[in-house]
Specification:
mainly alpha, 4 helices, rod-shaped
């Protein structure tokens, strides 16, 4: 990429004075202009975006609803299930895995 390229596009970003000063200070320490510093950050910063978990969460809620209905029937004596602990543990494990996935893919700083 040529450093002599013509920059004819503008990007306006609203910042507080403190935010702008902090960015300008970092740019100066890096020996870059504000523009070059921001461009370097945009090129070189890895940002991980979590996958869309909406369908998985929707299904997990349905499973939870079904478990609640089963538990209500068992508690009222209409049905008998020997042990739901394994099913509940599996659901908790899925919830924990989803939580870890979203935490791992959060914005990197």
């Amino acid at each position: 990429m040529s450093e002599n390229r013509k920059r004819n596009e503008t990007l306006t970003v609203r910042l507080t004075k403190t935010e702008r000063d902090r960015i300008a200070e970092k740019a100066a320490r890096a020996g870059l202009s504000l523009t070059e510093y921001i461009l370097a950050l945009s090129r070189d910063t890895l940002i991980l975006v979590p996958p869309d978990l909406t369908p998985v969460l929707r299904e997990l809620k349905r499973i939870g609803n079904n478990l609640n209905q089963i538990a209500a029937k068992v508690n009222s004596g209409v049905a008998y299930v020997p042990d739901l602990k394994e099913v509940l543990a599996g659901q908790r494990q899925i919830c924990q895995m989803l939580k870890e996935m979203t935490e791992e893919a959060s914005w990197q700083r």
